[in-house]
């Protein structure tokens, strides 16, 4: 796994991504949606597996799911499963908060 630094610390991350907000990022050519949910940062593939809509244009619900703006599919931020199993799971990336920053792990 290759680790990429996203932010200098968790405070910088939560300031850059508002509570229950989504920010799109391009990491080595891979588009991801970064989510701040309950002061924790999550990273998922930016494209919905159903019709490839950008999830950064969606919303985060109170249940910890990112909602696709196109057909409202709901994906769990921790494991990527769609709430009603209507399509493939969403790819989820590991986030680590370290002393020197917030990192994303990618293969």
How would you describe this protein?
The protein is mostly beta strands and 107 residues long. It is 7% helix and 45% strand. It has one helix at 10-16, and strands at residues 2-7, 21-27, 30-37, 40-45, 59-60, 65-67, 74-76, 92-98, 101-106. The protein has a six-stranded antiparallel sheet with strand order 1-9-8-4-3-2. A three-stranded antiparallel sheet has the order 5-6-7, with no helix packed on it. The mean pLDDT is 97.
Topology summary:
Blueprint: E1 2-7, H1 10-16, E2 21-27, E3 30-37, E4 40-45, E5 59-60, E6 65-67, E7 74-76, E8 92-98, E9 101-106
Antiparallel strand pairs: 1-9, 2-3, 3-4, 4-8, 5-6, 6-7, 8-9
Strand content: 35-45%
Give the CA-based shape. Answer: globular
The level 1 CATH classification is Mainly Beta
β-strand number: 9
The tally of helices reads 1
Domain unit count: 1
Oligomer: single chain
Task: Name some characteristics of this structure.
single chain; 107 residues; mainly beta; Rieske Iron-sulfur Protein; six-stranded antiparallel beta sheet; 1 helix; 9 strands; 45% strand; globular
Short synopsis of the structure:
With about 110 residues, this protein is mainly β. It has one helix and nine strands.
């Amino acid at each position: 796994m290759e680790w990429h630094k996203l932010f200098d610390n968790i405070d910088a991350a939560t300031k850059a991504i508002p509570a229950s907000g989504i920010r799109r990022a391009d990491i080595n050519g891979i588009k991801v949606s970064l989510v701040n949910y309950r002061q924790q940062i999550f990273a998922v593939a930016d494209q919905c597996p159903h019709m490839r809509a950008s999830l950064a244009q969606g919303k985060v619900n109170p249940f910890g799911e990112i909602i696709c703006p196109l057909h409202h599919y709901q994906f769990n931020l921790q494991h990527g499963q769609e709430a009603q199993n209507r399509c493939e799971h969403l790819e989820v990336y590991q986030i680590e908060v370290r002393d020197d920053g917030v990192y994303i792990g990618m293969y």
